[in-house]
Amino acid sequence: MSAAAVAVDCPEQGYRQAVRDWIAGNFPRTWMPDRADYAAPVFAEQIAWERSLYEAGFAGFTWPRDYGGQGQTLVEQLVANEELGRVGLPDSLNGIGKDMIGPVILAVGTEAQKVRYLRNILTMRDIWCQGFSESEAGSDLAAVRTRATESGEGWIITGSKIWTSFAQHADLCLVLARTGDPALRHASLSMFIVPMDAPGITVRQIDQINGRANFCEVVFDDVRVDTDAVLGGVNQGWAGAGRVLEVERAINRMYRASLFENELRHLVAACRSDPRLSVLLDEPAYLDRLGACYSDIEVLRRLVRRTVLSLTRGGAINGEGSIIKLHWSEAHQRIAVLAREMLAQASRPLSTVTKRAIERFDELYLRSRAETIQAGASAVQLGIIAQRILKLPKT
């Protein structure tokens, strides 16, 4: 077995222990979502936390040092993510910039764009959002209607985007827009780097069913950008967009398996603390479902590790990302459904432990409803798997 395979299957314990030690000394205990005294970080605390992650070497793992990266490998990134997920880290405010847009800039950006944007992503000076989805396009990204028209020394962008995460905080947006004949579909799309303070941009937060408002509608009303705002070439946006989605589906948030395991441990601990719920842990039907959830988590962990190993050997993500995305999104919904069903039977009045668990899993249940839609709906993933992996004929 190669050294890379050993590193992925049995990560070097010295590095893993160093990550654990750093987390133990720096991650606020009240941010741990399985604690009864949990308190979510506020915006300024989140910014400071993500900056400290970078300063400790836990962001930009594989990015070149010339652009602020760590010059490491995906193996270190995987190990650190697994350890961060184990304690239930909060969602990144700049995960889109660090996990998706940064890699695309590295792959297709100009040297000037790499110098201008990459380091600022890691240091949290620039927060990014992603302007891809549109209400009229559904799951067909090639049908976007937002248009960019050449004008003098730049472009004018007109249209709107929906479900744009953290747009209310973002400094920059990666916008997919039509720059040619709509009949050409994929071949007439371009990506633009757009400052969110440009005249003509309106951001409207969307109230979500889970009580949050992290999704936004973003309207572009004759927004002007310079020629150097194009990322990856005019009418070359589909290839870049594909890179973004491949990363989003496969290896961004490598901590998911560890985070899901944190959630399942929380559920079991809450049940053990309650006399009525503890009985459920001896019922075969619930034991079977808990076991199935643990199996789901282990499958996800191994899918991600296999993809990391392939990439370290020079492979590509391709359709593998759709398998991972389909699995984690549907597995997470199964965990949420099971948790709500079990916790609904808690003793009354609720203890502080079970009350916190119910709060966490109620929010998770509502949020997980969208997870089989975001980054490409399950039906889309099944189509990609059928065509690119199984090579099934179209009917």
Automatic annotation (TrEMBL):
<dbReference type="InterPro" id="IPR009075">
    <property type="entry name" value="AcylCo_DH/oxidase_C"/>
</dbReference>
<dbReference type="InterPro" id="IPR006091">
    <property type="entry name" value="Acyl-CoA_Oxase/DH_mid-dom"/>
</dbReference>
<protein>
    <submittedName>
        <fullName>Alkylation response protein AidB-like acyl-CoA dehydrogenase</fullName>
    </submittedName>
</protein>
<dbReference type="InterPro" id="IPR036250">
    <property type="entry name" value="AcylCo_DH-like_C"/>
</dbReference>
<dbReference type="InterPro" id="IPR052161">
    <property type="entry name" value="Mycobact_Acyl-CoA_DH"/>
</dbReference>
<keyword id="KW-0285">Flavoprotein</keyword>
<keyword id="KW-0560">Oxidoreductase</keyword>
<comment type="similarity">
    <text>Belongs to the acyl-CoA dehydrogenase family.</text>
</comment>
<feature type="domain" description="Acyl-CoA oxidase/dehydrogenase middle">
    <location>
        <begin position="129"/>
        <end position="223"/>
    </location>
</feature>
<keyword id="KW-0274">FAD</keyword>
<dbReference type="InterPro" id="IPR013786">
    <property type="entry name" value="AcylCoA_DH/ox_N"/>
</dbReference>
<dbReference type="Pfam" id="PF00441">
    <property type="entry name" value="Acyl-CoA_dh_1"/>
</dbReference>
<dbReference type="InterPro" id="IPR037069">
    <property type="entry name" value="AcylCoA_DH/ox_N_sf"/>
</dbReference>
<feature type="domain" description="Acyl-CoA dehydrogenase/oxidase C-terminal">
    <location>
        <begin position="235"/>
        <end position="390"/>
    </location>
</feature>
<dbReference type="Pfam" id="PF02770">
    <property type="entry name" value="Acyl-CoA_dh_M"/>
</dbReference>
<dbReference type="GO" id="GO:0005886">
    <property type="term" value="C:plasma membrane"/>
</dbReference>
<dbReference type="Pfam" id="PF02771">
    <property type="entry name" value="Acyl-CoA_dh_N"/>
</dbReference>
<dbReference type="InterPro" id="IPR046373">
    <property type="entry name" value="Acyl-CoA_Oxase/DH_mid-dom_sf"/>
</dbReference>
<feature type="domain" description="Acyl-CoA dehydrogenase/oxidase N-terminal">
    <location>
        <begin position="15"/>
        <end position="124"/>
    </location>
</feature>
<dbReference type="GO" id="GO:0016627">
    <property type="term" value="F:oxidoreductase activity, acting on the CH-CH group of donors"/>
</dbReference>
<dbReference type="InterPro" id="IPR009100">
    <property type="entry name" value="AcylCoA_DH/oxidase_NM_dom_sf"/>
</dbReference>
<dbReference type="GO" id="GO:0050660">
    <property type="term" value="F:flavin adenine dinucleotide binding"/>
</dbReference>
